[in-house]
Amino acid sequence: AIDGRRQLAAGSALEAGALALLDEDAEASNDSLVDTTDTAKPGEAFRVRLKIAGKFRVVTWDKIGPINPDLAPERTDGRYYLTGDFNGWTFDLMAVSYTDFGLNTAEVRLFEAGGEFQIVRDCSWDQVFHPPFGEAYSAERVIGPSTASEGKNWCLNGKVGDVFRVQFSRMREEDRDVKKLSWQLVSSESVTTQELVARGQGRLFLIGSWDEWETPRAMNWDGVAYACRVRIGSSGSESFQILFGGSGTTKFFPSRNHAGPYTPHDLMGPKADNSQLCWTIGHHSADHAEPGSAFNVRLHLKAGKLSSVAWEKLR
Q: How many C-beta atoms lie closer than 10 Å to residue 151's C-beta?
């Protein structure tokens, strides 16, 4: 409706792909669609224009081809993320479909057996989508967005090396919030966790003092080592450990406290251990750490096995 009017008029003077809105004083009893020569398919994009000439309004549209995801306008109804034990309960952005409205998709490679997960909107723990209770192996019902989600996870029930495609859709249907979730096994291979680590497909995370040991940070494979950047806070130093697999229970830590590149030590783990031993950037004067400075932390491999931790100051 424009200016509160819904009357539509079609006429031979109008071009295909156009409709006119009659003046409110004009006689019109029913809405009518304009005969057009264009056809629309899912995924195609149109440019819509409103033309104003005095008291008359005309809406026209032109087909401009399929949507290029890189050029498509940003969604304003929120983004959806996959979070689970396979990514340290951090947030992996789901890809938006430009052909199926409301559909979001992500693929998951399992680094450990299992695969518990939830869906989160806009990285907010106040907007979690989850099963109604416990550990669910099917997605018959989707609850949320809610905050009472702890311990209520879906489970892929996969093994190391399995790749799953997870799809989540949300849209309005007849004033109802309709949510659907599904997943399927895309591929599977016989592989060990150590083999995934050696070829750069391991899931490793830093957790440290910069946020009171709250949120894991993913370490990314740079072709030689697993790496992650750390910015030094007001104290002039930062301490950390390395989570293995992202579940929070298995980790790497040094053989002595406040270890670093200038302090001889061994890499311990991975093991489920409550050790408080940690690496500390800025503990040794050779680090030249200061508030605001940034370091690149790297976890190196030797003969296909994780072997040592080092870091360098970024300029």
A: 10
- Decide which of 188, 218, 234 is a domain's last residue: 188
Structure confidence at residue 165 (pLDDT): 98
Out of 188, 203, 237, pick the residue that ends a domain: 188
Q: Please give the Cα distance from 189 to 161 (Å, whole number).
A: 6
Task: Report the alpha-carbon distance of residue 194 to residue 202 in Å, rounded.
Answer: 8
Task: Compute the distance between CA of residue 133 and CA of residue 61 in angstroms, rounded to an integer.
Answer: 48
Task: Write the CA distances from 175 to 77, 79, 178, integer angstroms.
Answer: 16, 21, 9
Does the pLDDT of residue 29 top 50, yes or no?
no
Range with lowest mean pLDDT among 1-5, 140-144, 249-253: 1-5
206 plus 285 within the same structural domain: yes
CATH code of residue 265: 2.60.40.3620
Q: What is the pLDDT of residues 35-60, one digit of tens each?
A: 556 666 655 677 888 888 888 888 88
- What's the burial of 44, exposed, middle or buried (CB within 10 Å: 0-12/13-18/19+)? middle
For residues 53 and 55, give the distance between their C-alpha atoms in angstroms, rounded to a whole number.
6
Question: Which pair of tokens denotes residue 166?
Answer: 């997870």
Mean pLDDT of the chain: 86
Distance in angstroms (rounded) separating the CA atoms of residues 82 and 73: 22
